[in-house]
Amino acid sequence: MIETNPLIAMTAYLLAIATAALLLRSVPRFTRQLEHSGESRFAGIDGLRGYLAFGVFVHHSIITWIFLQTGVIDFPPSNFYSQLGQGSVALFFMITGFLFWDRLLTHGRQHDWLAFAVSRLFRLYPLYLPLMLTVFACVFYLQDWELKDSGTQLIGQTLAWLIFDRPDVNQYQQTGMLISNVTWTLGYEVFFYLALPLAAMVFIYRGGWMQTVLCLIGIYTLYQVVGWEHSLKKHFLASFLGGIAAAYWIRRPQWVAWSLSPLAGIIALLALAIAFTAFNRAFNLGALLLLSLFFVIVASGNTLFGALRPRSIRWLGEISYSTYLLHGFVLWVLVQRLPPILHLDARQAWVFLPLMAACSCLLIIIGSLTYLYIEKPGINAGKKTLHWLRQNRKPGKELPEETAQQR
């Protein structure tokens, strides 16, 4: 059965990696971009991102297959396919927690909060806004451009989508399924970003007890406000703690030295394998501990016997946000909308599997293009905006060199 056969995932990954390798060979601009990015301090994490983002695509592909068969949207029966989605998201949250907490520990009170805010804004929205506009356009196209909701309701729906909620647009049922509802994770990311200054004041800057109490109240208030429509789940937020723990782990030279050993690489892979096969959900204590163990070893610089190092994998990591954000729409177009036009039945394996293979390749091509022509210009626009803000605030002050925080 497709929903339990791991060879489907392996084939999809091979197609994606081969597509990335071919693009780097045939398009010099992609190669130059990868060389310009260079190998960061956490090169293994850059490679890990590529595996994770594509894993979420495979997860949603299997969910789409189940939906086509049953009409029900549900988790795959296979632990492996279920964890390709949930486990990958948990590890993404760990990456976020690790990178930003590490910067706080490194810079302390010198942390550039203005650069942090601007970079996050220009990292999330330049690609998200065109995708959101595309979703709205598709909805109205499918409804023959008929306005079924009032203008006030439509404005409310637009504002909700702008903060990564996914209400039905113009009474089109399950609008969020056009993008596989992937933006739910961005709500958690936004909460983490907003709570980070308050958490820093509690755990790093360490003021008086009154400051601590006020900051904790502020964090709780943000927790309620950000989760206003769909309450944030505490066990999902616990994933960030695995990344924060890794930020402390890498500051122990003896622990890092052990993490770089072949034995640690074997332990990391075993922990990942157990988490992805013995658990059906990632956000419980056992799975999170295993994933955290895996992550701290990778964060320490272990490339898992070179699996995180190839150029093609690093490129998949470079375009991981595009892959993550766009894969649901690519799936919807190719697997749900295209077959009826071609008079094909995607419920048949011989139709679905070639379409999934096509999605695997096309997603990497589209993601590479959107990264180069939308994401990267957006990041650069953020740097220019930051420079403009600083010039207006302190005339004559030069913009500091680019830091990893801009990425």
From TrEMBL:
The keyword Membrane applies. Residues 43-367 form the Acyltransferase domain. The chain crosses the membrane at residues 6-27, 48-68, 80-101, 122-142, 186-205, 212-228, 234-250, 257-279, 285-307, 319-338, 350-374. The keyword Cell cycle does not apply. Keywords: Acyltransferase, Membrane, Transferase, Transmembrane, Transmembrane helix. InterPro entries: Acyl_transf_3_dom, Acyltransferase_3. One of its GO terms (molecular function) is acyltransferase activity. It holds the Pfam family Acyl_transf_3. Its EC number is 2.3.-.-. This is Acyltransferase family protein. It comes from Pseudomonas monachiensis.
